[in-house]
Structure formats: structure tokens, C-alpha cells
Specification:
- It is built from 12 helices and 18 strands.
- The chain is of the alpha+beta class.
- The structure holds one RNA strand.
RNA sequence: GGAGGGCUCGCAUAGUGGCCUAGUGCGGCGGUCUUGAAAACCGCUGUUGGGUGAUCCCCAACCGUGGGUUCGAAUCCCACGCCCUCCGCCA
């Protein structure tokens, strides 16, 4: 949810944000009129309720012979109150619907345009030159690290088994990520992969991208696409002591994505899959500190990329390509020699107070309780990172170079070769 | 899955239809006293929405959630959720 006060005070800014996203500007006016309608409905119901209280006391105190007359008036009033309350709840629902329909306000400086209109903020490292690059699927099969055939046999397309060194690589990456996060002051968390509807909605995943989410109809639960969902829900309906901020969590969980609408995209290998594990950073900070925290998350992501000795670039994602909750998003794309392209490995979003409003997460500030800002950033999406490591660090002899930081977690191995 | 017990303001508790405009204790905050502290005493104490964006003031709502009965519900009725205890099943 965006700040209603801001919509009232500066509707043009909200309209401009909608326009940047390629969304409908008129929704801003719909929101404003829903807000007005709700206010007058509330005022009317409030005053009727006050009247009802007064008359209730009269009923209790009335002498026996006055009682029928007073009761008659009270009954008539009760009907009015009921009607007014009905209108109020209708207006509440209408406001909520209008409010939920508007995406977060785009941060100043975000490039305009769509998916192709990102701005490259930094390019780091030199893409390795590989004479006849194999892709990670081929390398993974040779190393007996990735088995997509049996993944398909057992679970269908976009599923995989990690075996042998592949499985060990996952544990090594998770440990490396968690060690870095803990050293930076993050609280390590193992988060649930199933969440309630209100948590899923609060994080903004049931809006434009709801087709992307798995739902268990029998239990009315959703499978998370990222532990961001559970980590955002963690403090829902809480007031966080200002002294505890910033609060930083590093969550590990499985992630599930339906990949609806991505038919034919990355069908080979484990770059785009229905299930993978991920270590995710999540920060709760005072609203004023959000933009700076966003830079910190990006720096931690870059630190991890550097440890993996990958060549990558950092991009500022254009407004039209932002998720519902994000005010700004930076992606890190690493080089895949077999594709001769940079592909997304991590993504960090500043959700400002958007998620916190929906999930009712506040802190005591100078003007009473105020929503906090929430931010998330990938530290390591395991499957895709393994794909990149194999591709990026492949050697002419078919082995794979192991970055120095990973060696202690892989029994000191400097290369991976076929067993 | 089955059987019981519970859910009230940060915590603990009182409250079985209208003097509940939710009391009391603890904790917390402020003050008096004190060289300082403790004790004692005094005062304050949650959340949401609205009243011309206002830390004061006024109004309304909130007693797990959602419905219902009633002129009126923390209190009565129904459904659901969660927690606890036991039984069954189980990694």
C-alpha cells in the first residue's frame, strides 16, 4: 500500500509514478474518491453510534411508563446505525481494493521504459574467453553433478536432481552465503516455504504476478517464491522498537515458481526451474534509511559475486519492469560464456514502506507509529549460481575451476572433474 | 483425526446483558524526596479511524477472527482460527 496522505497531498507525483510503470493513471483518482467516500461514511456512522450510546442510557434509566416510547426511538435508531455501518464496511472494502490496485511509487532516478531500458551502473571483471564453451547442463552431466533427465522423469519439466559434487556445491554455497551474512550482522533464519494468503498478499505477490505462485487449495496456503515472503511476514502486525532497527535477516528456504508464461525460455538446465533453494537478505529499516540500505544490500551482493570470482554487471532496472512492491531494483547479471551473455543472478529491491503498510509493521517515530521500510536482496540463488559457476569457470579439459573462497567448503578442491 | 481446557490493554488477572466510558496488580515512563540510588508517595500508560495534516482536546472503534440475537454484547448463540493437555498416527 502506498501512503494515502501522500496521494492526497501530491497526487501528481503518484500519477507520474503510475505513468512510468505503464500503469493506469486514473486509478489514482479512483483511490482519492474512494477515500473521500469512506471518510464521510465513517463520520456518519460515528455520529449515529454516539447517539445510540446516549439513547441506550436513556432506555436503561427510563421509568416504566416512558420505556415503550424510548424503546421505539431506540429501535428506529438501531436500523439507521445498521445501515450506516453497512455503508461504512462497503466503503472500507472499496478503499482497500482501490488502494491495493496501485503499485509502489517509483523512486526518483529510476530509468523510464521497459525490460530493455535498464541502465548499466557498473561492469566488473573480464568475461573469460572460452574456445568452445559447453553449457552448464552438459558440464553438470559430465561431472555427474546435475541430473535434469531424472528430474523430468520424477517431477516433470524444470525439475532436477543435484548429485555428488552438485549437491556438495549447494551446501558449500549456502554455507559461504550464510557465513558472509552472519559476519555482516544478519540473523540467520530457516524460513517456512508455505505461508497464509494474507502474508502472500501483503508482500505484493498476488497482484500482477499471481499466476507465478503455487497455491495449495485444500489448505489455503501458498508456496513461497522467495523467503522474502516469510521474512516480511515475520514481523507482521508488530511494532518494532526503534532501537532494534535496522533488523537484518538472512533467510534460507526452498523457492517455488510456476514459470507460467515463460514457455520456451531457458528450458534447458537449471537456470529457470520450478523449485530451487536460496539465501535471501531481508532488512527492516527506518523509512528515511531505505535508499542507503539498498546500496548496502547491493554491496553485499557484489561482495558475494567477487568471492565467486565472476565477471558481472550491475543494472538499474527500468520502471516498467519493477515488481508491484518495488520502488527501485538493482540486478546483478553474471557472464555465461556458453550464452555469450550476462544473465541475472541476484536482485535487490527497495520496497520502501509499501509492504510494511500492508503487513502492518511499524516503529515508534517522531509523529507516532510509522511504517518501517523493507528491502530484500538475493545473496545466493543456488541452482542458477551453480549453473553460472560451471559455465563461467569451465576449463578446456572439461574440468571446472573452484574459486578460492569455496575451496575450504569443498574439502580444499581446486578443480571439479568427472568422477 | 478424536476428547477436554483456554484466548480480556506489554505481562498477570477481574469482569455471566445497561454505573465497562474495561477495574486491579506488575512492568514501563515522568515527578516529589535524596549527594546519588533504593524505598515510599503522586501522576501518566495500548492500537486504529475521524474531527481543517496539530505530541493537547473531542468523537468513534478494538476484549482471538467472522457472523448472529438484542434498543444495547467482553458478557448470550453459531462458525472458524490459534494455544495448552491427553489419545491415535507419524519423520
Amino acid at each position: 500500500m502506498i501512503d494515502l496522505k501522500l496521494v492526497r497531498d501530491d497526487p501528481d507525483r503518484v500519477r507520474a509514478s503510475q505513468r512510468l510503470r505503464g500503469a493506469d493513471e486514473s486509478m489514482v483518482d479512483a483511490l482519492l474518491s474512494a477515500d473521500d467516500a469512506r471518510r464521510s461514511a465513517v463520520a456518519r456512522a460515528d455520529s449515529l453510534r454516539a447517539e445510540q450510546k446516549t439513547i441506550g442510557r436513556e432506555v436503561a434509566q427510563a421509568a416504566a411508563h416512558d420505556r415503550p416510547a424510548v424503546l421505539h426511538r431506540a429501535k428506529a435508531l438501531a436500523d439507521e446505525v445498521k445501515a450506516a455501518e453497512g455503508e461504512q464496511s462497503h466503503a472500507d472494502a472499496a478503499l482497500r481494493a482501490a488502494h491495493m490496485g496501485i503499485a509502489n511509487i517509483v523512486e526518483e532516478g529510476v530509468p523510464p521504459g521497459g525490460e530493455a531500458d535498464f541502465v548499466t551502473l557498473a561492469t566488473v571483471g573480464t568475461p573469460p574467453i572460452v574456445a568452445h564453451p559447453k553449457d552448464h547442463t552438459e558440464i553438470g552431466a559430465a561431472l555427474k553433478a546435475i541430473d535434469t533427465d531424472r528430474g523430468a522423469k520424477v517431477s516433470g519439466a524444470r525439475f532436477y536432481f543435484l548429485t555428488g559434487i552438485g549437491a556438495q556445491l549447494e551446501f558449500a554455497l549456502v554455507n559461504l552465503a550464510m557465513q558472509q551474512a552472519a559476519a555482516a550482522g544478519f540473523i540467520p533464519v530457516i524460513a517456512p516455504a508455505l505461508v497464509k494468503p494474507e502474508i502472500m498478499e501483503g508482500t505484493g505477490f498476488l497482484g500482477a504476478h499471481s499466476a507465478e505462485v503455487y497455491r495449495l487449495a485444500d489448505d489455503d496456503l501458498y508456496l513461497v517464491g522467495t523467503s522474502e515472503v516469510a521474512l516480511a511476514g515475520y514481523h507482521s502486525n508488530e511494532i518494532i522498537d526503534a532501537a532494534e532497527l535496522p533488523l537484518r535477516y538472512a533467510g534460507f528456504s526452498s523457492c517455488f515458481r510456476r514459470e507460467a508464461g515463460s514457455y520456451g525460455k531457458d528450458t534447458r538446465g537449471i537456470i529457470r526451474v520450478h523449485w530451487f533453494d536460496k539465501v535471501e537478505m531481508f532488512s527492516y529499516v527506518p523509512a528515511d534509511d531505505a535508499a542507503e540500505e539498498h546500496q548496502r544490500l547491493l554491496a553485499w551482493e557484489r561482495e558475494f559475486m567477487d568471492k565467486l570470482e565472476l565477471a558481472y554487471r550491475v543494472i538499474d532496472v527500468a520502471a516498467g519492469d519493477l515488481g508491484t512492491s518495488a520502488a527501485r531494483k538493482f540486478d546483478i547479471e553474471a557472464w555465461f560464456p556458453s550464452q555469450q551473455a550476462y544473465r541475472e543472478l541476484t536482485s535487490t529491491s527497495n520496497c520502501t514502506t509499501f509492504q510494511a503498510r500492508r503487513l502492518n509493521i511499524r516503529t515508534r517515530g517522531a509523529h507516532g507509529n510509522e511504517p518501517v521500510a523493507t528491502l530484500n536482496g538475493t545473496l545466493c540463488a543456488i541452482a542458477r549460481t551453480i549453473a553460472c559457476l560451471l559455465d563461467h569457470h569451465q576449463q578446456p579439459d572439461g574440468s571446472v575451476y573452484v574459486p578460492a573462497a569455496l575451496r575450504p567448503l569443498l574439502d580444499g578442491r581446486e578443480v571439479l572433474s568427472a568422477p
